[in-house]
Design a protein that fits this description.
Layout (H helix, E strand, L loop, with lengths): L13 E5 L3 E5 L3 E6 L4 E2 L2 E2 L7 H15 L8 E3 L13 H4 L3 E5 L2 E2 L2 E8 L2 H10 L1 E2 L2 E2 L9 E7 L2 E2 L11 H8 L1 H24 L2 E13 L2 E5 L8 E5 L15 H7 L15 H19 L3
Antiparallel strand pairs: 1-2, 2-3, 3-7, 4-5, 6-7, 8-14, 9-12, 9-13, 9-14, 10-11, 14-15, 14-16
């Protein structure tokens, strides 16, 4: 069994930044994105990772990027080691399956969130105000209610701390009217297509977030797409409105952490083996369901 990869170091490649999950390197014309096995919860990276998580996230993203090529171009240049620059080949044991060579895009300064169901921070805001990101919703909705139409609920992008929900008008103020409309329309089109594909596989995509960038003056989709780290996946057969749902993601980790006396600040607590194994199983299940891969 391969080891858990929490951090990558390639001395002869220019390191750019370390995100919550991905390590980024500059190769000149392109970037190298490496998905590690790190896991974060409540915006804190935890000390131990989930075995194979980076590979699973990467393969799910590759699947969805391909599905959405008729809607929007993506940042992928290559996903197989043999198509990477020669100097990366010696790192094949680490990079294989968990890395992508990508275009250098200028990231948009907003997170593009689409909700088809009422959950998480959206449910919390609806309970308090009857709206989500400035969008008035019908009265009488319950937790996990399916919305009549998916809604675009953007947020700020925070390197440190929590993202903050903002309105579509706020997005216009940040990126301009035309680009804001394109971000919204494209996000809703991707979500609608993904929802239809997933439902045929027995999966509800409750909500998800997308990252976009500008490349050669055109909009492309970047980072990851429709993974269990960026989306809520529920089983159609187990779905019951009026309560929280069992998710194919790191909810098992969040649920465990909520039982602890932890203030959700760094450093986070180590996860017990049984929670790590349970989380890993959930990631493997959704990889198989969505892509057919083991």
């Amino acid at each position: 069994m391969s080891k858990v990869i929490l951090k990558t170091e390639f001395p002869d490649i220019t390191f750019v930044k370390r995100g919550k999950v991905r390590d980024i390197y500059d190769l000149g014309e392109h970037l190298l994105l490496v998905a590690t096995d790190r896991i974060s919860a409540f915006d804190v990276v935890l000390p131990n990772g989930i075995h194979g998580k980076g590979r699973m996230l990467t393969q799910i993203s590759i699947y969805w990027f391909k599905q959405m090529e008729d809607i929007i171009p993506n940042h992928i240049v290559a996903t197989k080691i043999e198509n990477f620059p020669e100097k990366l080949h010696k790192y094949a044991d680490i990079l294989e399956g968990r890395s992508m060579l990508v275009k250098k895009a200028k990231p948009m300064p907003v997170e593009c969130v689409v909700r088809g169901y009422l959950s998480g921070s959206g449910w919390k805001e609806y309970k308090e105000k009857g709206v989500v990101c400035g969008i008035k919703l019908p009265e009488g909705l319950v937790e996990s209610s399916r919305l009549d139409e998916p809604i675009f609920t953007p947020s700020t992008k925070s390197e440190h701390g929590h993202d903050i929900n903002i309105s579509f008008e706020d997005v216009k103020g940040i990126v301009g009217d035309d680009l804001a409309k394109k971000l919204k329309d494209t996000s809703l089109r991707i979500y609608s297509k993904a929802r239809d594909i997933a439902e045929k596989k027995g999966i509800i995509i409750a909500d998800t977030k997308f990252e976009f960038g500008l490349y050669n003056r055109g909009l492309i989709i970047i980072d990851e797409i429709l993974t269990p780290d960026s989306s809520r996946f529920w089983s159609i057969k187990d779905y019951i409105p009026g309560r929280s749902q069992d998710s194919y993601d790191k909810q098992v980790v969040r649920d465990y952490l909520l039982t602890l006396d932890w203030d959700k600040t760094y450093p986070g607590p180590s996860l017990p083996d049984k929670i790590v194994k349970k989380a890993s199983t959930r990631y493997r299940e959704i990889l198989k369901i969505i892509t057919g891969q083991e």
